[in-house]
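Sequence design from tokenized structure. All designs in this work follow the same two-part layout: the structure record, then the generated sequence. An example of the structure record is given first.
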């Protein structure tokens, strides 16, 4: 029986998808629930499983094609896997033997052609390379077919080879169409710049107290909860506390109204091969450090595997992004609209600071808050950063709820 493979129900607010990659080709046998094809939407990749065991007879939508919900992707002929009875083994061996004999015959007459291959390549530019050009090319692993000749009749000379080496060789370009996710990211970033009045304020945090806690309890924490104790959970809790003190930083603009959110849904920016994704920690203000770390680890794993769901990425009242994992010392992050603020974490560097009248070396991090100046005043932004700084520099008070 022939079965039509169709585009499944798309997530809410998604109208179409792009055929990203077929994992099977016509004639291949597939098992029920085996992934046939990936469909890429603006945020997530959807897998389309085989509805039954059978042979993929035809593909109706090629890679790169835009498809809509319910559209036919291909035809599957239902049935069991064909039995391999080994009857064709003799024919296959005979074919291989004949092919080998034919190759042997052709090799006898092709030796001189192979020996002259590099010369013919050089001639493709106009003339054969000179002996000195050949030697220079061999010593520097240069393909003379890529060298423009300046000699008589376009012959490649030694100076031509040296000039080619000094110029770094041929300058190549490649054009690759943006993925839907990358296009969507570009669109959202440009919308943020065009819509919001973005301003960034900075501060620095002494992370010695946090690092001391991690060093003292990280092994016990991992044994108890099965996840590592990182920095992000401390920052999430510090931001939740600061957002409660300064609710306008947690608000958003809707037309001519300011929407104040009485909860903290924190987005955590996760870098993947496909681009930047921002899964949401719902009600982060109610989560423990362990719950935050487990949720982040789960989201990061799903994001990198491409199995994250659209609902995992929707909503959010505030975002944290950590450029420090890539070595960033300072940055001005862009807003994740319609949110009104985003906190940028950066790399930790030991720097000399004044402490109790003495110069000491401490692990310091610059933090940056980009915010929508339409509703957040500079005073609110600075006080928010100070609240985050205070919570992280005295984490015992934060964890004890003081």
């Amino acid at each position: 029986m022939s079965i039509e493979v169709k585009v499944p129900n798309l997530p809410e607010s998604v109208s179409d998808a792009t055929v990203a990659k077929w994992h099977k080709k016509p004639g291949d046998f597939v098992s029920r629930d085996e992934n046939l094809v990936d469909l890429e939407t603006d945020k997530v990749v959807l897998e389309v499983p085989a509805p039954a065991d059978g042979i993929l007879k035809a593909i109706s939508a090629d890679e790169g094609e835009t498809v809509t919900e319910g559209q036919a992707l291909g035809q599957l002929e239902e049935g069991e896997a064909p039995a391999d009875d080994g009857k064709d083994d003799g024919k296959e061996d005979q074919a291989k033997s004949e092919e080998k004999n034919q190759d042997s015959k052709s090799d006898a007459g092709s030796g001189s052609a192979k020996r002259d291959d590099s010369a013919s390549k050089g001639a493709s530019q106009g003339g054969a390379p000179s002996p000195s050009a050949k030697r220079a090319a061999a010593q520097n692993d240069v393909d003379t077919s890529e060298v423009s000749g300046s000699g008589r009749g376009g012959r490649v000379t030694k100076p031509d080879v040296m000039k080619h080496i000094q110029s770094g060789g041929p300058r190549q370009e490649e054009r690759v169409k943006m993925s839907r996710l990358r296009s969507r990211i570009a669109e959202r970033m440009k919308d943020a710049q065009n819509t919001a009045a973005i301003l960034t304020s900075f501060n620095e945090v002494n992370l010695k107290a946090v690092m001391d806690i991690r060093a003292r309890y990280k092994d016990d924490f991992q044994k108890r909860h099965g996840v590592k104790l990182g920095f992000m959970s401390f920052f999430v809790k510090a931001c939740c506390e600061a957002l409660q003190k300064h609710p306008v930083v947690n608000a958003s603009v809707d037309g001519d109204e300011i929407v104040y959110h009485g909860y903290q849904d924190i987005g955590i920016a996760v870098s993947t091969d496909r681009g930047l994704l921002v899964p949401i920690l719902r009600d982060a203000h109610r989560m423990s450090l362990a719950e935050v770390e487990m949720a982040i680890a789960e989201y990061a794993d799903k994001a990198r595997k491409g199995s994250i769901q659209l609902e995992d990425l929707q909503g959010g009242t505030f975002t944290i992004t950590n450029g420090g994992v890539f070595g960033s010392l300072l940055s001005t992050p862009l807003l994740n609209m319609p949110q009104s603020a985003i906190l940028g974490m950066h790399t930790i560097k030991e720097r000399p600071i004044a402490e109790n009248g003495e110069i000491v070396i401490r692990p310091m991090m610059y933090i940056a808050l980009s915010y929508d100046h339409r509703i957040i005043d500079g005073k609110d932004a600075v006080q928010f950063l100070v609240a985050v700084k205070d919570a992280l520099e005295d984490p015992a008070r934060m964890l004890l709820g003081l």
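The two ends are 68 Å apart (CA to CA). We note this feature because it recurs in several other targets discussed in the main text.
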